[in-house]
Design goal:
Chains A, B, C, D: Catalyzes the phosphorylation of D-fructose 6-phosphate to fructose 1,6-bisphosphate by ATP, the first committing step of glycolysis. 4 copies of one chain form a homotetramer. Chain A is an alpha/beta fold. Chain A contains 11 helices and 11 strands. In chain A, strand 4, helix 4 (103-116) and strand 5 (119-124) form a beta-alpha-beta unit. The termini of chain A are far apart. At the A-C interface, helix 1, helix 5, helix 6, helix 9 and helix 11 of A face helix 1, helix 5, helix 6, helix 9 and helix 11 of C.
């Protein structure tokens, strides 16, 4: 392995830069040349490729987003697009490609390997934590800390007005942000796509806690399980208690990465280089039971993400 | 002056607690009894009144919201409601009332003074900074710091995706949050209700800066001047550049108050007590040209808030 | 199990309140009475014990420190002291005691169990992460985030002056804070008590990176491995490069707990109640390989904490 | 005015970058060439000068420190050094020089003007706020927010242990950081160089508040008025209450600038360019009574900074 390439693809996640830094520094220490590819698969097709030195990754560990930028690529979905991409990799002498992104980005990497024999390694980066083979994806810990901070701010004003606050967080199919941030934020109710939810019992609980003198009631809902604005309106109508919706939106993707995200990103990045050097391909890196692992990309993509039901029930028990 | 009352009314603002603390401690030091009135004018009418000791305000200086809670009161808008309120003040022996809130809360205080001879003092608390007689209202500095933090987080992800970010901030009639946070956050464009705005020139600027290689373009819009979602859609349609809307909403009202807000809140609170002790009534406290002032409530309510045009033009010059 | 007691002992750690909240709410939901014991074993001896309702733990999940307060107790080290403590537990009908603290606090719990048959459960709380049987202690994640934030602030000023910054962090025998925060903060050098360290090679590295144009050089040292001030003076003398020492001290113990600490604290607290209900005693709760575990207290105290050498070497590789 | 130069000198202060950005963008908008001078007067002497475009100041408004770096210069204190500096300015065609720094930096600018006819403008940047002619210096608001955050963190742990916390903050001759942060942080005692202080009355107050059941007692001391460690030891000895010292040190210089600092920095920078364009020299920019001012450098340096005694007495009244 003389030259490797790095690209970030799909939605950005805080900690991507820490992974880029670790890949670059560990590879350089092994005498491997590192090429940064800008704007994901799109930039690869267009040849937006430049050599990275140790300075290219100075002072980036603390920055959100990705210095390599990211983009979605329609062209890469076609065999022709992937052929162009493979050509670019050959032209620039890139023998192994490390892809930072989510499920979709890994599928792209897999096609590139299958069709053109490129060695690819995936690093899971998504704030949603919706990838099943790994306990944590890069960006998730930062996102839940961001949401917890949002809940803190809303709690002040919500308690002063004795209102219900409904916070809609990211997570289309996966309620992990809502569940973890809800528990950590001390939310009274968590609504996620994986679990049934009874609106009437929420209203009953709001009224009961109000009667007990509780000043605020916080509901965290994953975007895949409902719209905050709708829920707020229904609550007001049903309970007569004021309810306000907040949608932090893209704030959740940004911000300085947490220590945890920087640490796993650093370990994932270092491991990705080692796995490539060992000659492996089509592997994805992750953390399982506190250990850094690499598993087959195919297998990884086939594992179905499930929700931690115990944690969900704990959330409800704590709000009583 | 043997006994004073404090109430917080209207929307809450970070720093209200610092003012409550200063009023309480300064009054107690002067041998004056302090009564806390909960839930604004509504609570006053209902007799939700309790004596405050120095412990009642321990460890609250750093907390957002208001420990006295706040509420809007329809009943207080009627002469009968205000009579009930005046009776409560008499029953509890409250000779002077300090009202923390905005314009509307001051109007209420004025009616109470005019109709029932109650001595009232107003302290300006609103994140919007929409009160003309004072350079700063309590809560404004915290709110702009919160928005600046939001801009920081959006900048990361916005730059990674090379998108336009539109952030809709509070301010129905007054663009101060948008203007100050926009400049401090390094926004490329600020849209406020007080100034005309040309959509085409925004689009031209987005395209020009894109061509120059700029990775992100941040627009801050006051809620009174447009909806972020609409603007995002129009920008995408007109320029072809991806645009994303974020509405931080009630987050802007919450959070730990900034040092500046705690300081002016402390000074305003201390001054309010002194002004009451001097026997004055119907005065509002403020800060003008770095000096703490008290002026006639009537006069204060008649001054029209204007925007700082130089600052607005500076915002535009800096984005070039 | 009709009544349980909770006490916090030794140094405080962010997240203790989240654990107290979970214990209280989960126990109440099971119909168990909860008694809060103030000021650790000292308060237990003195009978500083009060019943806790669900309101006692409202709005504490986000607060650092411990609402039960903590103290060291000389008297509890004597058999007479422990007899008094056991009497108090009997008087107040406390059948099971949950102790939040570190090694020393667990030893106390064990003696109480052995000598007086009290059922005890330990929950590991210490920012140092110096307890071997668990992957993480409550407070550690918050502490490393605090140190990472300190490093961020120092980086700004350090780079502007092109100085070396030496940050002395907590950890007398255990370098985990230094190691994790050092990597996450992008430090160039980490000095911990568990590993030998060559001063000359540090100086060489400072000079080499200076020559390469690097603006700052950050050293994180665990208090057990050296004094920041001494190291700064030696570096200046040896390299001629300006060096500044910073000792964040007790800041590391404070602050709002991170999402991660709140989550494990919540899980540990809930599990501690369940383990007590199952009739077990002398168990400590922890997290191992992502699973919440309970193990024998004796066994737990006998496991020796070791440093993650791979992580230490990774830290050095990344700084090249 | 065809070409201007910018340099940052002395200690760095958060907000310097916002001023550099404003100077650059406003000057470029007026068709003036901008030269950045690195490492203060030292870099000027050495010709470390480069042309700045609008991109040179992209994404720096939110960063602490100074992108131009700073250094102290012995050589510039000599007439020969200043002659070299003046030559460099001529060689690079710099007609007007904007100096960001404190008193010492302004004296240097004055000598350059007097001896070599260079047009100079000063912008006050120092976290200490020790410059008399301006109400605020750039960096002060950020520093007090940083100290307030430190106090918050210490309060948690201090209250849990019922200890006295002594925080030593920057300010050799000027107690403004201690005074403002002390009030905003709710400190019980503020010790500053400008005011006499009785140690016995501090001890009496500690004991009195302890008896009243107060959990913590926070003392903020300016470095020019005492060492935190000494004070802690004396308190323990005299009162028997545990006391802990914390010295945040250079943390106070770093961090993201606050909104307020970014705003005044932006205004100061824009005004500095305008003043130069008007042909003025030896002026310093500031804010007085909420207005941006420029006054004669000589006069500015002769005004003696005094402490706000009312504020000092308010601090004491609030702690009762």
């Amino acid at each position: 392995m003389n030259t490797i390439g790095i690209l970030t693809s799909g939605g950005d996640a805080p900690g991507m830069n820490a992974a880029i830094r670790a890949i670059t520094r560990v590879a350089l220490a092994k005498g491997i040349k590192v090429m940064g590819i800008q704007r994901g698969y799109n930039g690869l097709i267009n040849g937006e490729i430049f050599e990275m030195g140790r300075d290219s990754v100075s002072d980036i560990i603390q920055r959100g987003g990705t210095v390599l930028k990211t983009a979605r690529s329609e062209e890469f979905r076609t065999p022709e697009g992937r052929e162009k991409a493979a050509n670019m990799l050959r032209i620039f002498g890139i023998e192994g490609l490390i892809v930072l992104g989510g499920d979709g980005s890994f599928s792209g990497a897999q096609l590139l390997s299958n069709e053109h024999g490129i060695k690819t390694i995936g690093i899971p980066c998504t704030i949603d934590n919706d990838i099943a083979y790994t306990d944590f994806t890069i960006g998730f810990d930062t996102a839940i800390n961001t949401v917890v901070e949002v809940i803190n701010k809303l709690r002040d004003t919500s308690a002063s007005h004795e209102r219900v606050s409904i916070i809609e967080v990211m997570g289309r199919r996966c309620g992990d942000i809502a569940l973890h941030a809800g528990i950590a934020g001390g939310a009274e109710c968590v609504i996620i796509p994986e679990m049934n939810f009874e609106f009437d019992s929420l209203c009953r609980s709001i009224i009961e806690t109000k009667v007990l003198g509780k000043l605020h009631y916080i509901v965290v809902v994953a975007e895949g399980a409902g719209k905050a604005q709708d829920i707020a309106e229904r609550i007001e109508k049903c309970t007569g208690v004021q309810a306000r919706a907040t949608v932090p939106g893209h704030i959740q993707r940004g911000g300085m990465p947490s220590a945890f995200d920087r640490l796993i990103a650093t370990k994932f990045g270092a491991t990705a280089v080692e796995v490539l050097v060992e000659g492996k391909s089509q592997r994805v890196i992750g953390i399982k039971d506190s250990k850094i692992i690499d598993i087959d990309m195919n297998e990884a993509l086939s594992i179905k993400k499930t929700v931690d039901k115990d944690l969900y029930h704990l959330a409800n028990n704590l709000s009583i």
